[in-house]
Amino acid sequence: MSAPSCTPSLKGLTSYDDAVARLAGDAVPLSELEPVALTAAVGRVLAAPVVSALDVPGWDYSAMDGYAVRSADCVEAGGVLPVSQRVPAGTAPGPLQPGTAARIFTGAPMPDGADAVVIQEVCEAVDDGVRIDAAVEAGSNVRRRGEDIVAGAAVVDAGVRLLPQHIGLAASVGVAELKVVRRPRVALFASGDELVMPGRPLAPGKIYNSNLFTATALLQALGCEVVDLGIVEDTLDATKAAIARGAAEADLVLASGGVSVGEEDHVKPAVQALGALEMWKLAIRPGKPLAYGHVDGTPFIGSPGNPVSLFVTFLLFVRPFILRLQGRNDWALQPLRVEADFDWPRPDKRREFHRARLVRGSDGKNRLQVHQSRSSGVLSSVVWANGLAVIPENQVIQAGDLVDFLPFYELIA
Prior knowledge:
There is one protein chain. By secondary structure, the chain is of the alpha/beta class. Helix content is 20%, strand content 29%. It folds into four domains: 160 residues, Molybdenum Cofactor Biosythetic Enzyme, Chain A (3-Layer(aba) Sandwich), CATH 3.40.980.10; 52 residues, Molybdopterin biosynthesis moea protein, domain 2 (Alpha-Beta Complex); 83 residues, Molybdopterin biosynthesis moeA protein, domain 3 (Beta Complex); 76 residues, MoeA, C-terminal, domain IV (Beta-clip). It has eight helices and 26 strands. The strands form seven sheets. It has a six-stranded mixed beta sheet, with no helix packed on it. It has a six-stranded mixed beta sheet with strand order 16-13-17-21-20-18, sandwiched between helices. A hairpin with a 5-residue loop joins strand 23 and strand 24. The longest helix has 19 residues.
C-alpha cells in the first residue's frame, strides 16, 4: 500500500542501492599483509587461508572411558577378558593382544588391533580381568583419524574476520601465527565552531562533540587505526587543510558535518578544490547529504553532522567500504524479516532507516517497535534501539506487516 508524500522531488538524489554499490565497488582491498601471533589475531581479517598440514584427530581415539577390545572377542554378553594394558590420554599404547582388553580413557589413542570401546558402565572388574556385560559392535565409541579435519584442507578461508573459534581451530592444526590484512588507517575530523570536547566547560551556543567519539568507536570496532584530526573550524581553508592532511596520511578520510549547502558548510567546495566530488545527496532518511569523492587518490566520505545521521550513514555506507578495504566478503547486509508492532501512515519518498527495537511479546513472537522521534538529533534513540527498521519508499506499514530489520549486532563489527 502506498500514500502520497510531501517530500521534495528526488531529482538528482542517488538511491540507497546505487550508493552502496558505488562505494563497495570503488573500495580497493589493501595489499599490505602482516603476520600476527594467534593471541593477537582476534578481530583481524585473514589474508591467506589456513591450511592444515595434518589430520585431526591424528589417530583413532576413544570417545569414552572404558575398555578397548576386538569386537570379535566380545560377540556375546558376559564374557571375561584379561586386561593387558592401561591407556590414558597422551600415551602411546602397544598393540592389543588377541583375547585381551585395554583399560582406556577418553581421548586416548586406540591400540592397534582394537576396533571398539566398551563403556565402563557395562563392565565389571574381576580379578585381573574385566567382564563385559554387553555384545560389542565394531566401531563403537571410537573417533576416527581425520574425522574433523583432513590434511591439506583449508580450515579458515581468506577474507574472514577472525573470531575466537577461528583462533582455536588454527591452533588445533598447529598454526602459531596468521597472515592478516594491515589495519585500515582512517583520518577523522568533525566540522563545527559550536563543538566542544567533553570535559571542558560549555559556553552559550556550544555543544559537546559526540560525533568524533561515536565515529572513533565505530572505526575501532571494525579494527581500524584512527588518525584523529580533531575539530576543524568552519572555514574553507581549515577544511581543505584537514582533508589534505588526511589524504596524505590515511587510506580513507571521514568527516562529520559541513556537507550541506549552508554558508558555513565547506566540505563540498573543499573536496572539489582538492580533488573530485563523485556523489552527493542520497535518497535516504536520515543522511541525505552524504559526500563521496577522492583527493590525491584517497577516498573521502563526508557524513551529516546530526549525530543520528552520522551513526546511520556510517553503518550503511562507511562500514561496507571499510570491509571491502579489508578484503572481507561479508559486507552486504542481510536483514531479518520481522512483524511490525507499529503503524507507519505517512511514508517518505526516500528510503528510511528508522531506529527500532526487536522485542519478544508474551506470545513468544518477535515484533518490531520504532522510536517515537524521527529527528536525526535525538542520539538517545540509537541507545534505545537495537537495530534499524527499513521503511521502503512510499510504503505505508500497518501493525502485523513484515518489515526488514537490520540488527546492530550484525552492523557494529
